[in-house]
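Budget justification aside, the reviewers requested a transparent look at the raw inputs and outputs of the sequence design task funded under Objective 1. We therefore reproduce one unedited record. The lines immediately below are the structure tokens for a 284-residue chain.
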């Protein structure tokens, strides 16, 4: 009997211990409604947190632009530029007159020889075209009459104290003058030849031309010296002659009357331009 009692006592003790362990485990079990707390993961210094669109950054670091780069305004290729010429253009050549028809009677000279040119150039140029002059005379006008210079007789006037007159066989005479006989310049010309001489104005007027053929060019002055009259064409002074009615008549009482000659009867007998010696007391 004692053995049975001992065994039962041991079983009872074991049962009590198991019961106590079950109760202890029940007291330490978490409530079913509460979730276990998660341990936060350590934050790394290199972790980049996303930034929402509404977040404003105060960082001083530059924010890279997301806009597209503008198109370049520099052309892909630079146009080639032409190099400047390495040689200078050749100067224009002047054609020298070869015959009288190459000369032009003009209000500014006997072109291409213009007023103001030195006699040392003009005379040889004309000689090359017209041949040697038939006369070459020098003159002095020592008396100064308020800018007009008179010869020793006081009957002839000129624009300079010294003068030189060179005439050619075709009827052309050229005048040169200056304050010194070593620096003479081309000042005027007169022509009293004829159409055979080959000299004419740019409009074709020459000695022998009829007024009727150049009505638009020739202007005739009123009056004259009997059958001789004066006119102008292209800036050139003309001496005219009428083979019909005179330019002027003188009545018995000494009064003058102007005539109206027929243009078909009036022709050019002389042409002149520039400054020439002038006879102060010539008739008419």
């Amino acid at each position: 009997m004692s053995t049975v009692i001992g065994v039962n006592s041991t079983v009872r003790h074991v049962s009590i211990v198991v019961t106590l362990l079950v109760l202890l485990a029940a007291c330490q079990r978490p409530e079913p409604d509460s979730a276990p707390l998660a341990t936060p993961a350590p934050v790394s210094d290199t972790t980049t947190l996303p930034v929402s669109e509404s977040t404003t950054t105060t960082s001083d670091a530059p924010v890279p632009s997301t806009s597209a780069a503008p198109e370049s305004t520099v052309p892909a290729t630079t146009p080639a530029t032409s190099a400047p010429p390495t040689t200078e253009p050749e100067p224009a050549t002047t054609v020298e007159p070869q015959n009288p028809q190459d000369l032009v009677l003009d209000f500014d000279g006997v072109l291409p020889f213009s007023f103001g040119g030195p006699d040392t150039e003009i005379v040889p140029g004309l000689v090359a075209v017209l041949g040697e002059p038939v006369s070459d005379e020098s003159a002095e006008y020592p008396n100064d009459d308020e800018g007009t210079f008179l010869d020793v007789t006081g009957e002839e006037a000129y624009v300079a104290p010294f003068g030189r007159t060179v005439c050619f066989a075709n009827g052309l005479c050229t005048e040169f003058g200056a304050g010194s006989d070593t620096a003479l310049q081309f000042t005027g010309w007169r022509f009293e030849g004829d159409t055979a001489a080959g000299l004419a104005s740019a409009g074709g007027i020459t000695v022998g031309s009829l007024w009727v053929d150049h009505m638009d060019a020739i202007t005739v002055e009123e009056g004259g010296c009997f059958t001789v009259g004066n006119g102008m064409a292209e800036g050139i002074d003309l001496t005219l002659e009428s083979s019909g009615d005179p330019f002027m008549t003188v009545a018995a009482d000494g009064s003058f009357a102007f005539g109206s000659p027929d243009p078909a009867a009036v022709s050019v007998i002389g042409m002149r331009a520039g400054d020439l010696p002038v006879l102060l007391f010539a008739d008419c």
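Residues 26 and 37 are 20 Å apart (CA to CA). DSSP finds two helices and 17 strands in the chain. Computational costs for records of this kind are itemized in the attached budget.
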